[in-house]
Amino acid sequence: MIPEDEVTAPWWAATRERRLLLQRCDGCGTVQHPPRALCTTCGLLGPHGFVEASGHGTVDAFTVVHRAPAPEVAVPFTLARVRLDEGPILLTHLVGVAVPRCDVPVHLAWEPLPDGRALPVFSQE
Question: In this protein, which residues make up the domain named ChsH2 rubredoxin-like zinc ribbon (predicted)?
Fold first, then answer.
């Protein structure tokens, strides 16, 4: 199971409602992902606020994984870098995409976890 802490708890709570939050620095306004205690632009220590992402982005890199990292992981799967319309990059899975390509618009979908949380994944628009 993926642990949460005081910095990531609001992000994980939003995934239970299938909402993708991005952290916004209270000092300089930078929007970043994943949530962290420190702003990657100005260095301000949090707490920082959150804004809801549109759920739209573009694939800027991907790889198709054919060798399972663990026995319970089904292969093949597509691991992708998705640049959200808001700017941050998510490392995520592409789902329902037969032939992945770069520069393709994608939209947010969700992969449920056993405890009610979910992981953001993306599919083609």
Answer: 12-43
